[in-house]
Amino acid sequence: MLEMRPDCERCGTDLPAEAPGAFICSFECTFCAECAEDMDDRCPNCGGELTDRPTRAAKHHAKSPPSTERRFKRPA
Length: 76
Prior knowledge:
The chain has one helix and three strands, in the order ββαβ. By secondary structure, it is mostly loops. The chain has one domain (about 1-55). Strands 2-1-3 form a three-stranded antiparallel beta sheet. A hairpin with a 5-residue loop joins β1 and β2. This is DUF1272 domain-containing protein. InterPro entries: DUF1272.
C-alpha cells in the first residue's frame, strides 16, 4: 500500500492523499506538479520517472491512513 506522503519533498507544498497533483517515483519520493515539471519528471533522489500518484478517498483514511511524516527539509 502506498504511504501517501503529505508534502512535496522539494518545496513543502501540502499534498493531501485525497487530492490530485502529487507525483511519485517507484520509491515513493513525492513531489508537487510544479516541482515535478521543473525536474523534467525525474526523481532527483534515484533518477526514476515521476508519475501521477493515485488519490485515496477520504472515506478510507480511518482504515488505511495516509502518512503524516513530512519529508520536506527547510534549508539551513
